[in-house]
């Protein structure tokens, strides 16, 4: 075989080998990447709780069973991320407007200040739909227990040092995911996860 033929044969073999290796790498990556239809993990079951809503009525875990809901922890006098989180939650509610069964819950970590009337005015300021979105207050100890032991976020030592996470809860009252409430990419992921849980 001539040198030219050997050279061409070598190039062809190199191209075929490179293509094979690339194909294996792509298949390996596809195998590791979770599919969009993968079930969301069940992280923690929420304990029973009873707090007071901005409608001045009790809201309990049992009242939320059968509903997909998103929770966060805020306080109305917050000069940090709370307003941004509430605006973000309002945008999520708007994106899920076709699903009235999806609910939203914001728990105040400053119950001494955030009475039901104060929370009602705060919700109205951000355009919260009172039929779908509850702002909760109650005894500080109960809120700390729910945040730290139930949702696994926040701080007992300083309750106003709270998380910027949105917590996704399924119809059985189980936490299925945490999403940063100030990150648009994670908000997109949250909306997709809500659609997934609705179908469960």
Task: Please describe what this structure looks like.
The longest helix is centred in the first third of the chain and has 30 residues, at 3-32. This protein starts with a helix and ends with a helix. The model is unreliable at 3-37 (pLDDT under 50). The chain is 42% helix and 19% strand. It has an eight-stranded mixed β-sheet with strand order 1-8-7-4-5-6-2-3, sandwiched between helices. It folds into two domains: 1-33; 44-198, Glutaredoxin, CATH 3.40.30. It has 200 residues and is an alpha+beta fold.
Q: What key attributes describe this structure?
A:
6 helices, disordered N terminus, 8-stranded mixed beta sheet, single chain, 19% strand, alpha+beta, 2 domains
Question: What would the CATH topology of the largest domain be?
Answer: Glutaredoxin
What's the CATH architecture of the largest domain?
3-Layer(aba) Sandwich
Amount of beta strand = 15-25%
Strand tally is 8
What is the compact description of this entry?
The chain has 200 residues and is α+β, with helices and mostly antiparallel strands. Helices cover 42% and strands 19% of the residues.
Helix-strand blueprint:
Layout: H1 3-32, E1 44-45, E2 50-53, E3 58-60, H2 61-64, E4 69-74, H3 82-95, E5 103-108, H4 116-125, E6 133-137, H5 140-150, E7 165-169, E8 174-180, H6 184-198
Parallel strand pairs: 4-5, 5-6
Antiparallel strand pairs: 1-8, 2-3, 2-6, 4-7, 7-8
